[in-house]
Amino acid sequence: MIKEYCKDDCFKQSSLRKALGLVEKRNQVISFIGAGGKTTTMKRLAQEYNDQKIPVIVTTTTHLKIEDYPWFLLEASEEKAMEILSKYGKVWIGEVTKEGKMQRPKEEFLNQMMEKGYPVLIEADGSRRLPIKAPAEHEPVYHKKTTHVVNLYGMDCIGKTLEEVCFRAERAADILKKSMRDIIEPGDIAKLMLHERGGKKDLPEQVTYSVILNKTDTKELERQALKICKQVKENRIDNIIITGIES
């Protein structure tokens, strides 16, 4: 399920790419921040580009899990990257850390790939698989060519405590003026996404800022997501999107 918030209501969209306003855009560098399903959402968007026969590059400025797929490239080889793109329509580029994860590729190699003009999807911070987060001092790590920022929140955090479901919960508690054991409400997500130490921390100028309320898997969570949309509609957010299992 993909719905876009517009004029005080949510309307179904045919694709994530369309909901994010990416269909007519060129030279897209899309950085994903927040929590609640960044990697899964990147995969979904990459597949949509594949379906339209548009080659796509995926990478990170932090760390990603290495998966056993032939489109993962863990060396700086433009020739191999182009071979993978030609065969699979996508390539995940980076280098291996000592811990066996994928980290950002060499800057020269990444710039070479960006010059191809293909969409580039970047995971720009981590969340340890928790539904929401507040960024640390060093986060997010935006690439200087970022054109779009997509900030995710997992709606499955509603009704749970900060200490249960929030990465860097102490920072979130300070922003929200709550204790670690306080229950998360829709208004808390709205505040986090708009806060200069939350979702808008170090937001580059002239980027398109979109928010995805992910894991909206029930009618009740959809109602709560719509409540969040209405709370933030007057603020500078270019797209607000609700995603989840069809409810």
Structure description:
The protein is α/β, with parallel strands linked by helices and 247 residues long. The protein contains 8 helices and 15 strands. The strands form 3 sheets. It has a 10-stranded mixed β-sheet, with helices on both faces. Strands 5-9-8 form a 3-stranded antiparallel β-sheet, with no helix packed on it. Strands 11-13 form a two-stranded parallel sheet. The mean pLDDT is 93.
Kindly list the characteristics that best describe this protein:
single chain; alpha/beta; 8 helices; 247 residues; ten-stranded mixed β-sheet; 29% helix
The largest sheet, given as strand count, sense and whether it forms a barrel, is: 10 strands, mixed
Radius of gyration: 18 Å
In DSSP terms (H or I, runs of 4 or more residues), the helix count works out at 8
Task: Give the beta-strand count.
Answer: 15
Characterize the quaternary organization of these chains.
single chain
What structural category arises from helix and sheet content? alpha/beta
Mean of pLDDT: 93
Low-confidence stretches: none
How are strands sequenced across the largest beta sheet?
2-1-15-14-12-3-10-4-7-6
Distance N to C terminus: 8 Å
The helix/strand series, from N terminus to C terminus, equals EEHEHEEEHEEEHEEEHEHHEHE
The helix fraction, in percent, is: 25-40%
- The 3D shape can be described as globular
